[in-house]
């Protein structure tokens, strides 16, 4: 809504108001809080609280901003826009330093939280505590409630953020796009959604549920949060409930990568429980995956899922995995070529069997370096590194990203899109990736068959690859990336326009033509020819 006040100002008076606001704001942009140089920067004056939200059309409700900040602001309310800009800076910093999404941990760190242990004791039906580290020596107490259904004990207390930590075990996910809505909701003084859940772990008060609620309140300036604290809870139950809340019960859905991490935690807890109940030392893994499933009979299907997900999580997060730098774990960004969803549906689903449960002890031949699960993880990661080395590293440019690539080519706005970037982008499309991975897997299975080895498809990666097979795999990937179609810009408006089906690309690779008869490849894909070095193909 246009400002009648500003419209009535002469150019000179508008400039004077700009200078006045600039001085009030200590020469900083209201939104990004970076310096404004009135001689060099274009500026805007805007309402802090929008007129549509009953903001006043006078000087008390004006702020000066960089013109670019005002045009790109994430909310019409400048107060909210400033908060979201602060959050954006934190997120970018964390992403650049750790290649992870920012979480409650990072917000607490930025706002001087997570400093002290929570000193407490239980007396009768009350929890007694104090916050002496920040100068509050008063002994406080809260009534302990016992849940009628679960018998879990908990209490409600107001806690300074200096005493709050993020529970990365039970709730490892980062901050997602829903945070903006919560910030706006809380800014309207609506308190129903405020409450977060916490537990005491080794003297630290850790928030395991409601991290977005906590983040929103902290960003709005809250220094104390009311939390429900669970006392000596069953960690298995809390973790499993959090998992269900993000999947079957569907609150804010957890990313699949986070679900894997939670299931990995649940798997570890089942292993520990098995060891305790069989009086085994914590380094004794003389039992098998199948024995775990048999022992936890009522939970067998879940245990099987936990085992498989723990393998997938180990592959994805292994430090040596170079491909992970090109996977978008949030599923929203436009900087990285492979969404986690596509990575899961194509690479993980193709390489890790959901059916295979081992009957050998978990530590079988570990000392000899021949443990089947360890071989499986290491070899899959080595394949991923071949993909990274030949398709992505020093080729895909995150600053160019994936947004409107084909459209920019059509519009002749593609000067910053190199051929190597285009190749990586196109080869990473889910419907393309799922199809050429079948040929890569054929390179492996055919090699074993040619050498007289009949290997169970589910155990391919648990069988050690020799040096020639690794050469074949690398040659195939190199030759695949050199096919002309990946960098053919004339296909932007046809073959690569929009999202195609799996069958569309299966037809192209099998026949060399699209389903409507357009020639895409000179010949159908022949993986046996492609395992030769690129000079001879």
User: What number is the mean pLDDT?
Assistant: 89
Which overall shape is indicated by the principal axes computed on the Cα atoms?
A: flat
Which ranges are low-confidence, i.e. pLDDT below 50, for 5 or more consecutive residues? 246-254
Structural class: alpha/beta
Instruction: Determine the strand fraction and express it as a percent band.
Output: 5-15%
Total helix count?
18
The major sheet is characterized as: 6 strands, mixed
Radius of gyration: 28 Å
Total number of strands:
13
Percent in helix: 40-55%
Q: How would you describe the oligomerization state of the chains in this entry?
A: single chain
| Count of domains | 4
Straight-line N-to-C gap: 64 Å
Strand order of the largest sheet: 6-7-11-9-10-8
Q: Secondary structure elements and their pairing?
A:
Blueprint: H1 4-7, H2 11-24, E1 43-47, E2 62-66, H3 67-71, H4 78-98, H5 104-110, E3 119-123, E4 126-131, E5 136-143, E6 145-146, E7 153-160, E8 164-166, H6 179-187, E9 196-201, E10 204-209, H7 211-219, E11 224-231, H8 235-245, H9 256-277, H10 289-295, H11 300-317, E12 327-328, E13 338-339, H12 340-351, H13 372-392, H14 405-410, H15 419-427, H16 430-450, H17 467-481, H18 502-511
Parallel strand pairs: 8-10, 9-11, 12-13
Antiparallel strand pairs: 1-2, 3-4, 4-5, 6-7, 7-11, 9-10
Helix pairs in contact: 6-7, 8-9, 9-11, 10-11, 11-13, 12-16, 13-17, 16-17, 16-18
């Amino acid at each position: 809504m246009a400002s009648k006040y500003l419209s009535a100002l002469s150019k000179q008076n508008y400039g004077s108001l700009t200078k006045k606001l600039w001085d009030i704001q200590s020469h900083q942009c209201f939104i990004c809080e970076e310096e404004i140089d009135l001689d060099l920067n274009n500026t805007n004056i805007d309402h802090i609280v929008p007129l549509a939200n009953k903001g006043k059309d006078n000087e008390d409700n004006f702020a000066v901003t960089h013109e670019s900040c005002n045009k790109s602001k994430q909310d019409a309310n400048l107060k909210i826009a400033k908060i979201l800009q602060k959050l954006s800076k934190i997120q970018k910093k964390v992403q650049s330093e750790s290649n992870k999404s920012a979480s409650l941990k990072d917000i607490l760190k930025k706002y001087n939280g997570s400093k002290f242990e929570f000193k407490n004791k239980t007396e009768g039906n009350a929890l007694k505590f104090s916050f002496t580290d920040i100068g509050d020596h008063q002994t406080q107490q809260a009534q302990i409630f016992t849940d009628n259904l679960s018998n879990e004990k908990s209490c409600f207390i107001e806690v300074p953020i200096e005493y709050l930590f993020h529970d990365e075990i039970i709730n490892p996910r980062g901050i997602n796009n829903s945070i903006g809505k919560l910030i706006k909701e809380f800014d309207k003084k609506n308190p129903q959604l405020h409450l977060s859940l916490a537990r005491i772990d080794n003297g630290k008060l850790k928030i395991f549920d409601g991290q977005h609620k906590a983040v929103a309140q902290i960003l709005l300036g809250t220094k104390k949060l009311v939390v429900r604290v669970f006392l000596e809870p069953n960690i298995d139950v809390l973790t499993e409930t959090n998992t269900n809340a993000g999947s079957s019960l569907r609150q804010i859905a957890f990313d699949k990568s986070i679900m894997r991490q939670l299931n990995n935690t649940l798997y570890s807890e089942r292993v520990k429980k098995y060891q305790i109940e069989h009086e085994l030392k914590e380094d004794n893994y003389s039992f098998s995956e199948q024995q775990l499933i048999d022992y936890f009979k009522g939970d067998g299907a879940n245990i099987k899922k936990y085992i498989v997900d723990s393998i997938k999580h180990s592959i994805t997060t292994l430090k040596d995995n170079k491909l992970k730098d090109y996977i978008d774990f949030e599923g929203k960004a436009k900087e990285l070529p492979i969404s986690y969803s596509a990575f899961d549906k194509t690479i993980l689903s193709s390489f890790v069997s959901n059916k295979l449960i081992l009957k050998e002890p978990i530590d079988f031949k570990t000392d000899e370096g021949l443990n089947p699960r360890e071989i499986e993880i290491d070899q899959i990661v080595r394949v991923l590194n071949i993909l990274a080395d030949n398709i992505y590293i020093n080729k895909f440019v995150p600053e160019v990203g994936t947004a409107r690539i084909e459209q920019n080519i059509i519009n002749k706005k593609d000067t910053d899109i190199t051929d190597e970037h285009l190749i990586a982008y196109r080869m990473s499309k889910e419907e393309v990736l799922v199809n050429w991975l079948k040929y890569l897997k054929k390179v492996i299975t055919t090699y074993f068959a040619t050498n007289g080895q009949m290997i169970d498809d589910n155990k391919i990666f648990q069988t050690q690859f020799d040096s020639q097979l690794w050469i074949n795999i690398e040659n195939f990937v190199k030759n695949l990336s050199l096919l002309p179609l990946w960098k053919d810009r004339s296909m932007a408006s046809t073959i690569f326009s929009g999202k195609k089906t799996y069958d569309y690309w299966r037809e192209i690779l099998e026949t060399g033509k699209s389903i409507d008869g357009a020639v895409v490849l000179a010949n159908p894909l022949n993986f046996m020819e492609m395992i030769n070095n690129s000079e001879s193909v």
